[in-house]
Amino acid sequence: MSKLGLKSKVAIGLVLAFLLIAIGGIFFPVHQPDVHLSANYGGHVPEPFYKLGPIYITNTLITSWLSIIALAGLFYFATRRMKLVPKGLQNLAETAIETLLGFVEGVAGKKNGRRFFPVIATIFLYVLFNAWMGLLPIFNFIGIGHTGTASGAFFGDYSGFIVDVAIFRAANTDINVPLMLALVSFISVEYWGFTSLGVRTYAGKFLRFRQFLLGLGYLVKGRVKSALSAILFGAIDIFVGILELLSEFVRIISFTFRLFGNMTAGEVLLLMMAFLVPWVIAVPFYGLETLLGAIQALIFCALTLVFATMAVTPHETDHD
Amino acid sequence: MDPEAYKYLGAGLAMGLGAIGPGIGIGILGYGAMLALGRNPEARGPIMTNMILAIAFAEAIGIYALIVAIILGML
Fold first, then answer.
1. pLDDT of the residue at A47
2. Minimal Cα distance from B60: which residue of A?
3. Do the beta carbons of residue A180 and residue A122 sit within 8 Å?
């Protein structure tokens, strides 16, 4: 056998240790994870953090406020003592904001980009913080539960504390948070459309009766041939308008389920991996989830941006 | 088979069949993006952004299947 260098020895040792931990994890059973879609796990939630007067305090509400506090804190401390040459935290915040602004202005143009930027940047940062905070080790593990036994995946039974209701749960995995963001995005897009095109032009994108009425006018004047073609194309135009109006509303559902589904799928994936082989195997999936959180945040804000850009550009209505 | 079995079968089928379409779609999108990158490597930024956007649309369909599968499994 040839002599191995120190580096390769260390590498082999690390790989062996990794394998040992990975295989050893099998012998320490964890209880089967409960996959819940609703944030509060049905209705069986203890009073204390369930209801506060008329307000329902759910675990995702707590974490969404945590991420709001984290965002506010980050930007408060970043902008507290601003210098001309940024350093440290201010540098980070400026880089993030400038990158976002560049992206928004690149898609929507200088003037509209400045208008869209606050909403879109807020959506991006909020989704990103919600997603990344869900990867912290305090999530899904601390909570109200009971002591009991449950069957493990490979060997033996798990006995000990089983969490029924976690105090922290990633906010994006509650369907209300993506729904709220989708509604904000929808309302902003419609507002921008109405304000920059005017009510008449913007509504004319969806209610396209012009061609049809033109055709009726021809019919009255007695030009049957052009009237028929105008009426035919007008009917198609009306149908297209209705479809576009419908697609505006379908966006809400699509936005909601895209974010919710992706984040919930990530959560379930992490739970399953942690359950199958504890300790080591879940680690690469945390990396994957970090990437996915960033991509989902980007997708949410980019789609809002694209829809907003589409809403503020006037439509070419005339066929003839 | 008892109804419970049908339920889980349905959940598995929903996810499995529902993943075919988005998988093919995302594959085609990646193919197109790679071709575009090969032709014009300078346009990396816009190609990436647009590819990710289009993939998001394709992927959303797979996510719907996932939701249906999860709901079926939880019923």
1. 44
2. A258
3. no
The neighbouring-strand residues paired with A160 are: A148
A207: its two tokens: 């209610």
Pairwise CA distance, residues A309 & A105, whole Å: 11
Backbone angles phi, psi at A111, to 5 degrees: -70, -50
What residue of A is the nearest CA neighbor of B56? A299
Residue with tokens 């956007």: B53
Using CA atoms, how far apart are residues A308 and A192, in angstroms rounded to an integer?
Answer: 7
- Mark out the alpha helices in B1-75 (DSSP H runs): 3-18, 20-39, 44-74
Instruction: Provide the H-helix boundaries in A25-88.
Output: 59-78
Q: What mean pLDDT comes out for the span B40-65?
A: 84
Please tell me the pTM assigned to this model.
0.80
B74 chain-A contacts, CB cut-off 8 A: 35, 37
pLDDT tens digits for A23-45? 776 666 666 666 666 555 444 44
Angle between helices B20-39 and B3-18 (to 10 degrees): 10
Backbone φ, ψ for residue A146 (5° rounding): -140, 165
Determine the 3-state secondary structure of A163 from DSSP: strand
User: Residues B18, B64: contact at Cβ < 8 Å?
Assistant: yes
Q: What is the pLDDT of residues A260-284, one digit of tens each?
A: 888 888 888 887 777 776 667 778 8
Whether residues A258 and B59 touch (CB distance < 8 A) is answered with: yes
